[in-house]
Write a structure and sequence with these properties.
This protein is globular. It folds into two domains: 208 residues, Aspartate Aminotransferase, domain 2, CATH 3.40.640.10; 136 residues, Aspartate Aminotransferase, domain 1 (Alpha-Beta Complex). Strands 3-9-8-7-6-4-5 form a seven-stranded mixed β-sheet, sandwiched between helices. It is an alpha/beta fold. Helices cover 38% and strands 14% of the residues. Helix 4 packs across helix 8, helix 6 runs parallel beside helix 7 and helix 11 crosses helix 13. The chain binds pyridoxal-5'-phosphate. The site of pyridoxal-5'-phosphate has 15 residues, from helix 4.
Length: 429
Amino acid sequence: MNRHRSRTLGDRPLSPETLMMGYGYDPALSEGSIKAPIFQTSTFVFKSAEDGKRFFEVAYGLRERDPDEALGLIYSRINNPNLEILEDRLAVWDGADKALVFSSGMAAISTTILALSRPNDIVVYTAPAYGGTEYLFDRILPRMGVETVSVADADGGEGLARAVGEAAARAAARGGRLAAVYVETPANPTNQLIDLAAAAAAIKALGQAEPPPLVVDNTFLGPLWQKPLQHGADLILYSLTKYVGGHSDLIAGACMGRADLMGRVAEMRTICGAVTDPHTAWLLMRSLETLHIRMERSQANAVELVRRLRGHARIEAVLDAGGAESSPGQRAIFARQCSGPGSTFSLRLKGGEAEAFRMLNALRLFKLAVSLGGTESLASHPSSTTHSDYSPEAKARCGIGDNLVRLSVGIEHVDDLYADLEQALARIG
Ligand SMILES: *Cc1c(COP(=O)(O)O)cnc(C)c1O
């Protein structure tokens, strides 16, 4: 299928905001429909037996694709117009060669890691990471002979650099490789930032001909406020469930980045079958049209709430990415790597679980729910929910106390949101 892929108007390169309305879709192929229809189909009819043969040669890697040859449509576990258009549009924001969409963020993460690693390999990752990701690294990969090393290293990057060097040497000694360096930044729920350029430099310092890829979960600030490919990342992962979907009504994920690595991820997605469905892809295309407006508005709301809440009598600290209460090292990383703090931040209350629960139970507009990045504001208590399986030591190390409340700020009127927080904080007693 040939589709509109021009990214310029004359000499002028077009912005992602503009490209989200039409890029990758040709109305003439769909009866002039201004929006892409939902291609609710499992399989695609070949025009001839020769076509079927040609499409499979490319899909199975039996021959290289000709430069102008579009990947023929075969079967919706392999490709589908809704997925392909969505993937083209997602790749625009981060400047990726290629993007692939998955049935969830975890499907994207686990399929990508499976594509990169083999028995005897080691994966180094930064902690804390998303709970599902830590489960994959701590419990599932070791069963498959892949060792994982977690590094809790915020500012300097020395700990991460040391772990990368040691892991590469240990893996080589037993016939394996350092398969990947996996970074989640900012970390949930404390907004600790990891220096991506320092991580990329540590990988480069290994001096390997085929260095391990730097893989970054960009769910919290991407694709607007942090562009990891510009700071040395090779692959980016997303839970599209969060900001990109943005309406708390779907589950999906994505992986994007360098073409050669994406080929390996595509193979694994086809075989694991972790692909998303045409209807979810269609919803995500709708979401992409308003992505920048939603992310700008929710960030503006969050910045204003942080400004009003800092120094509040019931609050010990406000944890926003690179914020005024973070260390100079954190603020330096923020200045280099992020163009905004996003709209998920946490409050360290004065008191403990009882005080946090009194506040949470008093909230009227903020809903008590895990997840983030939707149009509506959410509040959660990480210590008793998303991070309840952390040991007391791990909670202490990662700064996840009983007094921590995480907020995901939506696009409601900021004065209403502040009024809600103010009355709930007053109810602490
Ligand atoms: C939610 C989330 C995930 C997992 O995504 P799902 O779509 O729920 O599978 C991974 N990483 C981060 C940072 C997340 O917030």
